[in-house]
Each structure stands twice: as structure tokens, then as C-alpha cells.
Design goal:
Order of helices and strands: HHEEH
Distance between the termini: 39 Å
Helix content: 40-55%
Number of domains: 1
Radius of gyration: 19 Å
Largest sheet: 2 strands, antiparallel
Number of strands: 2
Shape: flat
Length: 77
């Protein structure tokens, strides 16, 4: 029996292959613009920053919170 994570990875691999067929990298590679923001410079800054994730549900546990309001959750942080 596959774990939930193994199923997600397998499904995503199929999706990625289909996407490659629909939109090859060469079809948009020349249109990609470099970012004005520098990732490594941001890490060296003096400000503390967080990347947060909030989820209403998870594939393995189902609904975590029925009254899911991301804006309200962010204001509480």
C-alpha cells in the first residue's frame, strides 16, 4: 500500500510530464525575466522574516479547521 506522500509524488510526476508535453521549456524560456530581488542578499539582511503555511485540510488527516480564514489567521500572528 502506498503512503499518502508516495501517491502525491507519483501523481505530481505524471502531471509534470504532461505539462512538459503541453508547454516545453523552450516555448517560454526566452520570455523569463530575471528578478530584481536577490535571494541570497535577502537572507543576509537584518530583518527576521518567516514563510508560513496554513492549511484548511491535509491529504492524510482531512479537514484541520472548519472555520478557515487565512486573513484572520495572519492578523493573529
Amino acid at each position: 500500500m502506498q503512503t499518502v506522500l508516495a501517491k502525491i509524488v507519483a501523481d505530481k510526476a505524471i502531471w509534470v510530464e504532461a505539462r512538459k508535453q503541453q508547454q516545453p521549456l523552450a516555448s517560454f524560456q526566452n520570455e523569463v525575466q530575471p528578478s530584481a530581488r536577490h535571494f541570497y542578499d535577502a537572507l543576509q539582511g537584518t530583518r527576521t522574516a518567516f514563510i508560513l503555511e496554513c492549511k484548511k485540510a491535509s491529504p492524510s488527516k482531512g479537514v484541520i479547521r472548519d472555520d478557515f480564514d487565512p486573513a484572520q489567521i495572519a492578523r493573529c500572528l
